[in-house]
């Protein structure tokens, strides 16, 4: 046993805290600060939050435990780790495709994630230079249109994000990834608390609190429930190879159940505090909570332009957003880099640049879509679409739900029960986890998937 392990990948996080921090860095991202606040706004607030929390606890956490367990057993890149668990369970190695799907989803997500992260990076400078002016809605909208309509500017910001990602990840798991995350995550929490404090004193905190934590079920549609479940996957970075990869680096003696709960707790905390930092400002300024994806790039800057200290707070806000997005981007590229090193004989630096170059090429598709170049629109069977919309749709609504479903089915039905029990340490926890991963999670995910693809309409 000892010897078999020694032959496998030997990279490990320094300790339990380093692992939890790194995985929290992977989880906390654009999903928490950009997406969660606006989908909560679109779906009526409190009742949506409650359902979202239930999804995190009863589906997200069990699936995360399953992924980390696979990684810990395999100690390889995701495809190979899933194969290993299959083989150890006397099942065919082709089950590895479940891990492979995740790696591919993660890679595709990264290709547009870096573009949005580029917007956030650009906004640090716009906020810092006082370009939100006095918060005139029209001027703020023009600012956003000016950025997203300028292909060369987008290319520049996106390339900067990718280069930074490559330069950190090339240094390795410990010297690059772990060190960067250990520096950025505490800063992110500090900025988040400053912003929430500012929102509480300058904004309408009472209205925001009421909006988020006073459930009004008449405002929640069945579609809102589906969105909540889907987002619980996205926000915890599930079904994207990430948690399998991070599990492969898990030091011995770390409880998979406890650490997963901590990661989910921090991710949820950041999302909720982000809401509590954004909504008091939105309400105090009479802005629209259901503004959609433009909430933080087009709505919030109106308030930043109008409020005392808004220039500094706005700058801090976008710095925080970049930190959050960057630690997720590092996670998203790690599986591909590790695979190039492990299976293709690349050096770590060579792998980082190769993976980064592939992302850069793919990101051109998203940039062309956003900047509306003549080549960017093409006809699809379901109507006119663009590369960005398709990627976003395919990954979030198809690849992640199917990937999560397969992880649940694989660990619940295919993998050896004794092996899973050994990996999910505590007996009592395993007895709770197993029926959830075997029945509850697959059924719930199936429901989401069918709803999102329009096969059923609830
Ligand atoms: N969890 C990340 C976020 O909240 C997004 C993400 C999804 C990252 C899937 C990787 C994979 O922003
Ligand atoms: Na998240």
TrEMBL record:
Keywords: Membrane, Symport, Transmembrane, Transmembrane helix, Transport. It is found in: Membrane. Its main location: membrane. The chain crosses the membrane at residues 17-34, 46-66, 97-124, 144-169, 181-200, 220-249, 261-282, 316-341, 353-373, 393-415, 436-456. InterPro entries: Na/ntran_symport, SNS_sf, YocR/YhdH-like. The keyword Transmembrane helix applies. It is a multi-pass membrane protein. GO terms for molecular function: symporter activity. It comes from the Bacteria. GO terms for cellular component: membrane. CDD domains: SLC6sbd_Tyt1-Like. PANTHER family: TRANSPORTER. Belongs to the sodium:neurotransmitter symporter (SNF) (TC 2.A.22) family. This is Transporter. It comes from Gallaecimonas xiamenensis 3-C-1. The lineage of its organism: Bacteria, Pseudomonadati, Pseudomonadota, Gammaproteobacteria, Enterobacterales.
């Amino acid at each position: 046993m000892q010897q078999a392990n020694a032959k496998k990948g030997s990279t490990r996080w320094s300790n339990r805290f380093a692992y939890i921090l790194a995985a929290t860095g992977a989880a906390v991202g654009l999903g928490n600060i950009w997406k969660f606040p606006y989908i909560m706004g679109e779906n009526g607030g409190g009742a949506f939050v409650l359902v979202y929390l239930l999804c995190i606890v009863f589906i997200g956490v069990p699936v995360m435990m399953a992924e980390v367990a696979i990684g810990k057993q395999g100690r390889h890149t995701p495809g190979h780790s899933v194969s290993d668990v299959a083989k150890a369970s006397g099942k065919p190695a082709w089950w590895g495709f479940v891990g492979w799907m995740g790696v591919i989803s993660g890679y595709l997500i990264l290709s547009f994630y870096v573009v949005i992260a580029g917007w956030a990076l650009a906004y640090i400078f716009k906020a810092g230079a006082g370009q939100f002016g006095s918060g005139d809605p029209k001027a703020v909208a023009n600012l956003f249109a000016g950025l997203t309509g300028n292909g060369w500017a987008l290319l520049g910001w996106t390339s900067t994000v990718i280069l930074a990602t490559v330069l950190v990840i090339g240094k390795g798991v410990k010297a690059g990834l772990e060190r960067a995350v250990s520096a950025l995550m505490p800063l992110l929490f500090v900025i988040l608390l400053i912003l929430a404090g500012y929102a509480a004193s300058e904004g309408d905190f009472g209205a925001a609190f009421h909006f988020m934590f006073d459930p009004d079920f008449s405002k929640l549609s069945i579609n809102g429930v589906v969105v909540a479940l889907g987002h619980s996957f996205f926000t915890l970075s599930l079904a994207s190879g990430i948690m399998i990869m991070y599990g492969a680096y898990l030091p011995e003696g770390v409880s998979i159940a406890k650490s997963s709960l901590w990661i989910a707790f921090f991710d949820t905390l950041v999302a909720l505090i982000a809401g509590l930092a954004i909504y008091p400002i939105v309400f105090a300024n009479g802005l629209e909570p259901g503004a959609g994806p433009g909430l933080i790039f087009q709505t919030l800057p109106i308030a930043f332009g109008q409020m005392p200290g808004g220039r500094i707070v706005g700058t801090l806000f976008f710095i925080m957003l970049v930190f959050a997005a960057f630690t997720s981007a590092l996670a998203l590229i790690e599986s591909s880099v590790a695979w190039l090193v492990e299976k293709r004989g690349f050096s770590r630096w060579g792998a980082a640049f190769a993976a980064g170059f592939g992302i850069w090429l793919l990101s051109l598709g998203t940039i062309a879509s956003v900047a509306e170049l003549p080549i960017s629109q093409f006809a699809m069977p379901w109507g006119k679409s663009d590369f960005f919309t398709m990627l976003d749709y395919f990954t979030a609504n198809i690849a992640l739900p199917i990937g999560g479903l397969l992880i649940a089915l694989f660990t619940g039905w295919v993998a050896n029960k004794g092996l899973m029990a050994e990996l999910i340490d505590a007996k009592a926890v395993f007895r709770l986890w197993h029926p959830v991963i075997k029945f509850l999670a697959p059924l719930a995910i199936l429901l989401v998937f069918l709803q999102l693809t329009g096969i059923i309409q609830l």
